Request: fold
Amino acid sequence: MSVASSDGAPRGMASRPPAETQPIVSLQGITKSFSNATVALKNLSLDIGAGEFVSLLGPSGCGKSTALRLIAGLSSPTNGRIVWPGEAPGQGDHELGFVFQEPTLMPWATVFANVHLPLRLKGRSVAVARDEVMDALEMVGLAGFADSYPRELSGGMKMRVSIARARVTRPKLLLMDEPFAALDEITRFKLNNDILRLWETLGWTVIFVTHSVFESVYLSSRIVVMAARPGRVVADLAVDAPYPRTEEFRTSHLYSDYCRQASEALHATLNEEERAE
Amino acid sequence: MSSADLTGLSGQAPGLDVAERRKARRARIERWARWLLPVVVMAATIALWQWYVVAYKVPHYILPGPDRVVDALVRDWPLLWPALLVTLQITLGALVVATIGGVGLAVLFAQSKWVEMSFFPYAVILQVTPVIVIAPLIFIYVPSKIIGLLICAWIVAFFPILSNTTLGLNSADHNLRNLFQLYGATRWQTLRYLRLPAALPYFLGGLRIAGGLSLIGAIVAEFVAGTGGVGSGLAFKILEASYRLNIPRMFAAILLISLTGIIIFAVLSLVTHLLLRNWHESAVKRDG
Reply:
């Protein structure tokens, strides 16, 4: 089994600068257990370098979503700490965007109002924020739907609104929790390309939770494979393929090589689990 | 595709059209039936009523025919109209106070678990104790009759608004709450932009129930208050008419009360539709 080192080895990226040495966020010995005695994460340590596209890949119950929620500050670890090296101590706002598994739009508000929400919560009125909101909608190709209500949109379009909303605050770090799991394959491929394009042009750091080997290889510069019971990291794989990645990459040898590596890492954890039972 | 296929397809098209036409016709009939059927049933009931009264020579002080009821409505209009206005005033007043009180309490409960734990039981007690047994006490303690009536009607009407709005405030989507938390929304912002809009359909459901209940509360309270003279409502007119065996006037007053209730319900339904038509499942029309 080939497992790459965790420090994000040099990657042959065409359009992206190499990751900075200082991580944007660092999880140090994180343990999270819930009140029903499940240990969602056990002693997890993970550095996310600025500019990386990291996938957390694993079976359900491996704590990948829990890790994402911890980074987002939506829950706090039982043990261990989360450090933001680039930020002044005490800075409350980590400049995050979060895309949930569902589009999570407010059904009573128009597309415009939904995307405007993060800015409105920061006290920026419609008049002040209009250009930024329209800009974000333009980026996902939905500028013409600003006045529509979410129910009038398809599943893929709703997801794009959700991405526009995450983008509108210009976050440094975008957290995505299986965002395309509920979409059909064609829409998923299209959104994969959309998100890659945004990542390349905007200089984001992305942490992408998924249970799809193929999706993670296609998107990521680095794949963190996790196992369940208790949730932990079992492999850290650098995907050393140049960006921009296109449909050609999907059918290349390099792609299938990486898919095989990731699958093997994943299956090793599953076999281990079966032996344990 | 060959031309044979094309003709085959076009040969089928009229068949589809027939099915479509039949569907459209059924929809049209249904639209008419929605209005026509209740009207026909109503007309038939009135005709049967009239026939029964005439055929069996029922004395009008037992059961007046519909003609006599209409007659009483027209003749007693100067008497009934001011009474209707009084009842309406109490009803709408109680509805407004119930709305403010119900929503206000629900928001307060939603802000603090402690407040909810402390006071929700009292709301339930007020709701389950029949207003008719509290009303005499209220009229002893409250000097103004109008205020007393308002309090009675309010007690009956506010609970559905309170309980529905509380439910609605607590049913905002969990992920959306996380999102608000993530963006550092204040308590007030979360209430204003998330919890209140999420509660709106529930509140409106409660409001429609409260509309009917505030009318019932007003009438019941009037029965208990029972004072005559100037400023008395429809309920008192009914009591008074029953003492005098003026059955047609009783029917006329009941008719007015029913109509009032129907109008209140229709108006609140319209308001609900207008507020929810863009987004809520209950008000969105779907094709097919």
Observations:
- Residues 1-19 of chain A have pLDDT under 50 and may be disordered.
- Residues 106-170 of chain A form one domain.
